[in-house]
Design a protein that fits this description.
Layout lengths: L3 H17 L28 E8 L9 E3 L2 H10 L31 E3 L7 H5 L3 E8 L7 H6 L11 H10 L9 H7 L12 E3 L15 E2 L9 H4 L6 H12 L5 H25 L13 H14 L1 H4 L3 E8 L8 H25 L6 E7 L18 E6 L8 E2 L22 E2 H12 L3 H7 L17
Parallel strand pairs: 1-7, 1-8, 4-10, 4-11, 5-6, 5-7
Antiparallel strand pairs: 2-3, 4-9, 8-9
Helix pairs in contact: 8-9, 10-12
């Protein structure tokens, strides 16, 4: 005879594994992934805050995103990428003038320009609401080139592998991890939210980033929640059939797993009603979003949900949106500019929408990707790399600044582990910790939810960009 503690543990384990196996995906008409089926330690939140992860699947090419612009470093960049480099005159309009000067490990100053297609982000940077993270990537602990070369470094598993590095970025563990740092942050806030279901929200499918130990990602489409089709309209034209279906999928069962499944189904149906009603009463967003840009439409749904956070009972939220296509082994010059244009357009619209809603100081968006790419090209593309450059934007961002160390624009340098693959000088854990600290996660909890952070001195754990 199992005791109640054992049964509760089994129930939690079942739900966590159900999330990992995507039982309730966005296209599934049953239950969207729901948060907080069990108790969670939570921080008290008297105001609203949200972080939004914008994940660029495939490994974004860092050197044609944030481009060396000063004469010496541009010359090195163009020499190493003769078929891939932007013409320097094309960069004049997006050259950045930051409040601080980025320097490399040798103390040499660098100047950068945004890729021309990222021009919509320039005003956000210039008004101090966008910062730039230099050479950030997956690390277990601070690592030197010598340690890497001598194979004495503690390294993330399966470097340069898409699936594994996506997982390490999102969870601090290799593919197969069942929780991510966004979800583990959500764990701290589910009990403080009036409706725990809406703590961790994914608008692009399923990602380990939003799976917590108690918080489970709630998946929506760009149009809102996905209702059970047979309840949205009379099943077979019969209201009685719809009632029978609802009873079937929500009534209590004696079997443990069956009962949990019906509880999840009921919560999904209830969540659909709550979200649909909240969105119907939300303020209109007049900021234009390009309907042909899927990332923009994902971010519009995030903005809509933020606009009705009060009706949803949400005080702290973690969102995930994504875009694919960044695995540019071929056709970098022809495909990458269009990808960047879509990202810039989407982020600009989202930031303007948060300003329109007067929540820009309460929402911080940030980019992430599998890894960066090689500085040297392979004719018309670049290969899998490691460290990369990323952006953080929002009203609370200490912007118009660079964070981290500028990498040397060279091969065979102390920043290069081969072909211009950057050895990261800032870790994902530091990046995540800075966002979590702003969200309200305590220093003690941070060491629990970001397991590699303990390898960094306390004075280096938070980067200060927000």
């Amino acid at each position: 005879m199992k005791n109640s503690n054992t049964m509760n543990a089994s129930r939690r384990a079942f739900l966590q594994r159900a999330s990992a196996l995507s039982i309730a995906g966005v296209a599934t008409p049953w239950a969207l992934n729901l948060a907080a089926m069990a108790e969670a330690s939570a921080a008290t939140a008297d105001d609203y805050k949200a972080i939004v992860c914008v994940f660029l699947y495939g490994g974004n090419d860092y050197a044609n995103t944030l481009v060396p612009y000063d004469s010496a470093n541009y010359a090195a960049y163009s020499r190493l990428r003769p078929t891939l480099a932007y013409g320097r005159d094309k960069l004049d309009a997006t050259a950045l003038q930051g409040l601080n000067v980025p320097v490399d490990r040798n103390g040499v100053s660098h100047q950068y320009a945004l890729a021309p297609e990222l021009a919509p982000l320039l005003p956000i940077f210039n008004t101090g609401k966008m910062g730039i993270m230099l050479n950030v990537g997956t690390l277990i602990r601070p690592t030197t080139k010598l340690e890497y070369t001598n194979k004495t470094a503690m390294l993330p598993p399966k470097l340069f592998s898409h699936n594994d590095q996506q997982s390490v970025w999102q969870s601090s563990a290799a593919e197969g991890a069942t929780s991510g740092w966004g979800g583990r942050m959500g764990d701290r806030f589910v009990a403080g939210n009036g409706n725990a279901t809406f703590t961790c929200v994914n608008v692009s499918g399923n990602a380990v980033y939003l799976s917590g130990n108690t918080a489970v990602q709630y998946q929506v489409s760009t149009n809102g929640s996905v209702p059970l089709a047979g309840l949205q309209a009379p099943l077979f034209g019969s209201a009685a059939c719809s009632t029978a279906l609802q009873n079937l999928v929500t009534q209590a069962r004696t079997h443990l797993f069956e009962n949990e499944y019906t509880r999840v189904s009921k919560r999904s149906i209830d969540a659909n009603d709550v979200l649909t009603t909240a969105l119907a009463g939300a303020p209109a967003i007049n900021t234009p979003f390009n309907e042909a840009n899927n990332l923009a439409m994902q971010l519009k749904m995030v903005a809509r949900m933020i606009s009705c956070a009060g009706a949803l009972g949400a005080k702290r939220q973690v969102f995930f949106v994504s875009m694919g296509g960044f695995d540019t082994h071929d056709g970098l010059v022809s495909t990458h500019p269009g990808l960047l244009a879509s990202v810039a357009e989407a982020l600009n619209s989202f930031y303007e929408a948060t300003k329109e809603l007067k929540v820009d100081s309460k929402v911080t968006a940030f980019t992430a990707s599998d890894f960066g790419r090689t500085l040297t090209g392979n004719n018309d593309g670049s290969d899998h790399g490691w460290g990369s450059m990323h952006f953080m934007l929002g009203g609370a961002v200490n912007g118009k600044r660079y964070y981290g160390t500028a990498p040397l624009v060279a091969t065979d340098s102390d920043d290069d582990v081969g072909q211009g693959r950057l050895l990261p000088t800032t870790s994902v854990d530091q990046y995540a910790a800075t966002l979590g600290k702003w969200l309200g996660v305590s220093d003690t909890d941070m060491l629990d939810l970001l397991p590699n952070l303990k390898y960094y001195d306390a004075s280096q754990r938070y980067l200060g960009f927000v």
